[in-house]
Amino acid sequence: MNRTLLHLFATALFGFSTGALAAPLFEESLSGAQEVPPVESAGTGQFALEFSDDLSQAQYRLQAAGTTTAFVGAHLHCAGAGENGPIVVELTLPTEAGVTGTITNADIIPPGPEETTCGRVINNLASLLAAIRDDAIYVNVHTEANPPGELRAQIFPRTPDLSELLPIE
Hints:
- By secondary structure, the protein is an alpha+beta fold.
- It is 12% helix and 30% strand.
């Protein structure tokens, strides 16, 4: 079995990387319908997040447009789909053209003394990645009109399409 296929097989079946190949990449579309409770918004957005192989940093790109009021915040939160949760990473405010940024371990926001971070410890990029793989992280864009959030996307791990890699004969 070639190395690429082995990596994809391990990632798809067991939820972990063999570490030999590409860093985890996540791409999501944001909408008001994903907010809890849902928000009527003409706004849309895109979010991409890619972890370095050694988990020392993660690069992100965030775009948003079509909201009627200005952006006042953008974050990664810890909670499953259909739930709201605490902020774990502050992001740069999005633009229509998109903003890029880097997340390091220093950017992880620890929970306060009275707060748990969605039932798990998120204190570095490795634990953030583990939470994403458990469907427990979402990206949220906040606006003046909707301070709790106007655009949201749950960050889901992707199962690779092995048919693209395997020759069909």
